């Protein structure tokens, strides 16, 4: 739904992608951007620059910029060549701007959508990613990064409190700083009839300075897919918890696409813990079109009151919820389209539209 262009400049490659999917989303009555004074604010796009041999020793440099309707992300990654049997190292610098809707967003239309709560996050991180050699089924990645998080309002000015006057950082100042050690393990097994996947993330905040956050956060995702004749059944279970220091934006947000459909992003709840289950059955309608029926449910396990400032209670979020729905999946060599219609426990319908796997 846009234009793609690749340019070769010496050994470097530049990929440009401009996407106009916002026009289609607008036709489906999705929320419009907050600031449309500039035509560029209505464009979704990306710019990627890759150099395969930066200093003549096969060093790789990737620079990418992704822009959405509400957010943007800049990533710089530098990789040095190492033998395949050794761990691969990558130096990363990343800066992102995004609305914090999952925790501070305001549920509207019977929790089917989430409006802006006036809190956005400016996040800067830099550090090292280490990927272990991949075995037949397992892969492991370890990272050590410094993170600086600064909440801003919709005018991109620094804030220390939300619209109700509660702190939006753990430190109480206009920013949080932390050094995070992260370990991620992934397992995958597949055959012609089924597949199994499991991933576990563990993050530890390291107290380099007294005011920096100290916490332990883990999250897991387990999924199983099985062919049932021409149909395909996919189930997944997601859970996590955090202990120690915590800012409200670190809470687990429940609700929305990829969580509990039928609700807006984070409209079910936000807590120190969460558990979300998804089940979806897809069946072919023709060579390129599939139908789908699904059921999602999720809960904060009663931990919403443990989030600083208790934003979920102030916004009237139920803490648990379930959604039922149906949809269509269109697949082609150029990309995939997904259209879902879900109804939540308040009998409010929500429409989701997505475009993925676009060919470059």
From TrEMBL:
Task: Give the chief site where it resides.
Answer: plastid
Instruction: Output the superkingdom of the source species.
Output: Eukaryota
- Give residue ranges for domain Bacterial surface antigen (D15): 53-354
The subcellular location is: Plastid, Chloroplast outer membrane
Q: Name one GO biological process term.
A: embryo development ending in seed dormancy
Is Plastid included in the keywords of this UniProt record? yes
For this record, the Gene Ontology CC terms, alphabetical, are: chloroplast outer membrane; membrane
Transmembrane segments annotated in the record for this chain: none
Q: Which UniProt keywords apply?
A: Membrane, Plastid, Plastid outer membrane
Q: What PANTHER family does its record include? A: OUTER ENVELOPE PROTEIN 36, CHLOROPLASTIC-RELATED, SORTING AND ASSEMBLY MACHINERY SAMM50 PROTEIN FAMILY MEMBER
**The protein's name:** Bacterial surface antigen (D15) domain-containing protein
Source organism per UniProt: Citrus sinensis
């Amino acid at each position: 739904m846009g234009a793609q262009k690749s340019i070769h400049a010496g050994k470097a490659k530049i990929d440009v992608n401009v996407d106009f999917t916002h026009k289609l989303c607008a036709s489906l009555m999705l929320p419009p951007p907050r600031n449309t004074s500039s035509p560029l604010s209505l464009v979704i796009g990306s710019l990627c620059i890759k150099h395969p041999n930066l200093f003549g020793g096969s060093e790789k440099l990737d620079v990418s910029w992704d822009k959405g309707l509400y957010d943007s992300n800049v990533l710089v990654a530098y990789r040095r060549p190492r033998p395949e049997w050794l761990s691969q190292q990558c130096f990363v610098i990343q800066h992102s701007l995004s609305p914090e809707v999952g925790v501070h967003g305001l549920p509207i239309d019977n929790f089917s959508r989430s409006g802006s709560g006036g809190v956005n996050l400016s996040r800067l991180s830099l550090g090292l990613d280490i990927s272990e050699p991949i075995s037949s089924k397992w892969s492991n990645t370890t990272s050590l990064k410094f993170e600086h998080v600064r909440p801003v309002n919709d005018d991109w000015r620094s804030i220390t409190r939300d619209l109700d006057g509660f702190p939006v950082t753990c430190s109480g100042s206009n920013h949080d700083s932390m050094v995070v050690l992260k370990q991620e393990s992934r397992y995958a097994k597949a055959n012609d009839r089924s597949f199994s996947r499991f991933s576990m993330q563990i993050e530890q905040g390291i107290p380099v300075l007294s005011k920096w956050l100290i916490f332990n956060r883990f999250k897991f995702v387990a999924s199983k897919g099985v062919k049932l004749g021409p149909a395909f059944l996919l189930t997944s279970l997601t859970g996590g918890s955090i202990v120690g220091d915590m800012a409200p934006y670190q809470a687990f947000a429940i609700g929305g696409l990829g969580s509990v459909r039928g609700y807006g992003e984070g409209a079910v709840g936000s807590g120190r813990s969460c558990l979300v289950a998804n089940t979806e059955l897809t069946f072919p309608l023709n060579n390129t079109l599939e139908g789908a029926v699904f059921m999602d449910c999720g809960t904060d396990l009663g931990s919403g009151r443990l989030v600083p400032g208790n934003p979920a209670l102030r916004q009237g979020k139920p803490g648990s919820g379930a959604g039922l729905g149906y949809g269509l999946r269109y697949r082609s060599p150029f990309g995939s389209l997904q259209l879902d219609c879900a109804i939540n426990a308040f009998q409010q319908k929500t429409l989701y539209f997505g475009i993925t796997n676009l060919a470059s």
